[in-house]
Amino acid sequence: MISISFLSACGKASFESVSKETIKSVKDTFDEQVKETNKKSGNMHFYLPFGYEIENESPNNIILKNGSKTYILFNNPQENTTSDVVYKATVALFEELDVNEKFKKEDRLGFVIIKRLEEDMNELTIGVGGTKITTQVKTSNMKTEAVVMTQIANSVENDN
Question: Which of 3, 51, 82, 137 is deepest in the core (most CB within 10 A)?
Fold first, then answer.
């Protein structure tokens, strides 16, 4: 009986360890060279990896799809890359968060917010200044998803 519970516990990635790896991956990706923009929506330019497509657009929100996964890319063009307005507004949406990390580089403010929804499902939000991207993701996929989401959020530029 003990062996079975031990094996089943080892089979699933623990939220605590995956969230720590996710935070590190987001910070590392945030510090990398920003991906070159390859998509445009309104006055916003951004990088979109292969396999991702724009499903719907409005002035501040873009719904992205990658297979069956949906992402919401939000951009407040009034806020620059060092602004914490979107970060504060996002944190205020939740009574309690499982991960709330903010970090700075000279010209940018980044953040990662994770809220556990169910046993193996989480709401993951990655932001840079006035931009954030959100999706729902399984714990085991959180680190990989976070890297791509950081690349997208990090790349956003607005026409002035």
Answer: 137
- Contact (Cβ atoms closer than 8 angstroms) between residue 116 and residue 100: no
What kind of fold does domain 13-158 have according to CATH? Jelly Rolls (2.60.120)
Render pLDDT for 92-113 as a digit per residue (tens, 0 to 9).
Answer: 999 999 999 999 988 899 999 9
**Can you give the residue ranges of every domain in the chain?**
13-158
Does pLDDT of 125 surpass 90? yes
Distances (CA, A) of 93 to 24, 39, 96: 24, 29, 9
pTM of the model: 0.91
Q: Closest by alpha carbon to 41, among 28, 18, 58, 29?
A: 58
Q: Where are the alpha helices (DSSP H) in 37-126?
A: 85-92
